[in-house]
Amino acid sequence: MQLEVGEIYEGKVTGITKFGAFVSFEGGRTGMVHISEVAPVFVNEIKDFVTEGQVVKVKVLSVSEEGKVSLSIKKALPEDQQRKPASRRPEGGERGNARRGQGRPPRSPRPAPQPSPGRPGDFEWQSRRNDSGSFEDMMSRFKQTSDEKMSDLKRSTDTRRGGYSRRGPK
Q: What are phi and psi of 90, to 5 degrees?
């Protein structure tokens, strides 16, 4: 049986692990459903959603060059069931122990702190964080600044090594 990416098939769950479930198809092909692809909600225990021997509908996500088949149960569901259900928080958005009346009030949005170049701890890459640059640009600036600071630090420690040692004589 040839499995095609994007198609939905029925298969039988043949094994369950901590990280996923194995599903086999007619013709002997087997694929794996990763734990994140079992249901549209957070899955802590796969056994809460599938059992060995159960027949499930799965969508083929990919087939690697080695022949490994990646499957999804949640993407084989009808469109309206694929989304995560609404939050189960009590009304008012309270968190924590809301049942005991100890929930925290909702957070009020705070304005983002403005960088000040003279403040200790602010670096060049941080002062440009409001630019429209991409994440990669920001990481590149951070790496460059970090490399410069590390080389300065190494130079300063190399000059101090000549006289004093914390370890003492051996």
A: -65, 160
